[in-house]
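Subject: two folds for Thursday's group meeting

Dear M.,

Sorry for the delay on this. The cluster queue was jammed most of the week, so I only got both jobs back this morning. I'm pasting them in the order they finished. Each block is the input sequence followed by the predicted structure tokens. Could you check whether the formatting survives your parser before we put anything on slides? The first protein is the one we discussed after the seminar.
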Amino acid sequence: ISGSMEDQAKEEQLVCRTGLKLRMRLLTAKEAEEYFWIALMPYSWTNRRLAEIIATCWQTRTACATLAALAAWRWRRPVAWLLAGALAPTALLHSLRLLLWLISTRQLPDYARFPEFWCGEGPNRLYGVFLDSAEAGQQQPPLVGTVASLHLDGDTCELQRLGVLPAYRGHGVGDAVCRRLMRLCANRGYRRMQLGTTQLQQYAVDIYERLGFIRTDQFTSIILPGVPIYRYEAELSDAAGPLD
């Protein structure tokens, strides 16, 4: 896989659907370490939604109420103790968020060595998306989001680490960034791009399907326990071309 064309265009301008202007370039190892939490935002959001589902489902509420009633009866506590059954799911929600985050992120192959994994000598690439300096009105424009390409085999890569800060969502940033990543990967010699997402990230699914990704498989992973993960794939033959 060649990197010559990419090396010649390390920073390029993107224009989003709403006219927002961005700059996309490779991140340094230092920047990757500083901004890795943005790249992991999809996991944070999915874990939060999963925790909400578990904490608010009727099975959890029933179990909390039953345990509170048994505790009040066993230790002859006031009926007010039954309120613990109603409050327990709220407390459980925060614990679940932390637990799911710890379980999922520690299973990621790049978590413990994020800068080395993405910014080393290998074929993996991590990009930062910055607000254009003219838009930002400052010398060091803020980071808007991230996206990465993971090398899988000879002609296949995987789209990963797509994260956009909440303040910049709704402009079509994800769409523009994914399109540019597909172009970069096609120009480097990749023929196919894969990705994994979940039904909890419908906004991301909509972007991928607009870009021509087709669902090819479904599986579960210990990274997101109990959540079906959809495998998508797209041909990059039509994505190659000049980096305008």
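Second protein, same layout:
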Amino acid sequence: MPHTGGRAIVDGMTDLRISGPVQPGEVLDGRYRLEELIGEGGMGSVWRASDDALGRTVAVKIFAPGFTDDSDAIRRESEKRLLASVSHPSLVTLFDAHLSADSRSYLVMEYIDGGTLADVISGGPTDTRDAASLAADLGEALHVIHGAGIIHRDVKPANILLRPPLTPQHTFRAVLADFGIAYLVDAARVTTPGTAIGTAAYISPEQVRGQAPTTASDIYSLGLVLLEALSGRRAFPQQTPIEAISVRLTSPPDVPGDWGHGWRSLLTAMTAIDSGERPTALEVSVRGRVLDSEETDSEVTRAIDCEPAATRLMVAPEAAVAPAPPMLDASGRVLTSSPTAATVVVGERPVAPARGDAEPGSSPPANRSRWVMIVSAVALVLVATVVGVALAIGAASPAPPPALPAVGEPLDTHLQDLMNELSP
């Protein structure tokens, strides 16, 4: 059998039982034709591919050579069963899986052509409405997998794919991806104890201490992701990774107050050092929906406030005074003069003026009172605005960040070992 570049050629296709670098054009099991490398990590690579059997575009995750011992086989099997057991619009759908020690192991998943949250954040912060949608969608996705006894363990912007939005109010819909490092809560199906899988920037305090991650660990990571999405920078911007992971043992991240009470309350709870104080994934989703709704209501209110005054209340000039016809007796003589009648137009509803002794042509008392009330209301708004600006300018400067905690033995050694295992 002829060989080319160390790969055997069988029936015009690359025989992937021969170990070697993955190349565009290779076909997996006579069906999945690799087209473009779209992602790469320590556990393998992700390719955009064509499903020749069904004529659709798919994503293929190929596990790297070397993950062949028992613990890695269990991890790959865990991912296969995990993705097949759950279904949700905010979770990547598994189409096919091939796990074997004799040839390439890979997963075939739906292809989402929308980039990642990391791509969006690299261009600047998201607006609060898109961040609220992120909290709602990803909280719901975590609620589904947590209900199945599964912990993700690596929630980060690069693992959040973006679909096109369903409504014009939003920029995208979030989809949680990469369950390759997820493991099951059931101890009988857990991956190798002591294996640190995750990303240092989003790891929870309990994981830094060497404790096993829980569902609350995913909530902490999601809280840091939301903080980064809203601010455009990582929550712990310390100089070194060791500083960034050690400071979270004693200090929660800073949550700016100008995002509003709802955001401050939610993010403070999600990133609490004590895992028992964090909300559940369902609670995060519900509060995200509330924040999303509040943002929409606020935009409607702002749009109304920005309309020209004439479109909300039309005040026409006082109508011309038309004299009423005289009243006559039986002989045709004029009895008395009719009272002067005037019409005041507000909007499009005529309002009869109050009767009184005012001279013809003078403004009715009710008309003067109305203008006094309008002027007074405008003055009150101006005063309130000036006071609010003065209070904002005089607000105290934020307190300086807390000093990094002193880390001694044996925690110092543990942190260094942890950093060697984690992704940067």
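Two things I noticed about the second structure. The two ends are 44 Å apart (CA to CA). Residues 1-18, 183-195, 309-321, 337-363 have pLDDT under 50 and may be disordered.

Cheers,
T.
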